[in-house]
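Teaching soon. Got one?

===
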Amino acid sequence: MKQDLLDSGLILILTGGLSRRIGSPKALLTLSSEDSTNFFQAIVKRTSGLGVQVAAVTSPQFRGTSFGLPTVEQSRPEEGQMSSLLLGWAAFGEDAHWVMVALVDHPYVGETTYRQLTEARRRHPDALLWTPCYEGRSGHPVIFSAAFMRELKDFPLEHGARPLVQKHAARRRRVEVEDPAILWDVDTLDDYQRAQELQAKDLQGSRRVASSSKDETT
């Protein structure tokens, strides 16, 4: 029997940046004033039930901190996300067929979205990358195949992954999701405030739908 490719993946949480524009470690920001779960905890909680190894790239700010999962420290956080991705892949991805890149900048992404991406990876294994889309707009997290990562290793860091993504556009699988949070990139305090407001509105809308469905069945 062939090994299930889903089980040979890696979910890599990237929190190795300096968070200069926020002024404090993004990973430790809470989701809202009512929810004390921090960004890192939220991502771990929403990915830990997928049956896939979860690991993280952390910054020197967290030296000595126990996260309860495998970690590697990014000693050069100024080099950016691509450097952190390659560092994490080298540390944990040797036997993985794919890696999901979960940025700490996108902590409001729902568990269903992570699951939909891994299921798309299972259904369409011939793609090189898988990206979630909401109302036609692509967001995060993304999945890169091992073949894509091998090519990325030899790519100039300063260019980021975008040119390589464009090169392989024909082998990119877009996954439609009902999750606007894939677009909420928290880089500044203004972003953080807006994401909290959007999350509150989204939760209110979900509660209204749930209440309406309950009324219709009673």
Notes: The helical segments are 39-47, 81-92, 111-123, 146-153, 162-167, 189-216.
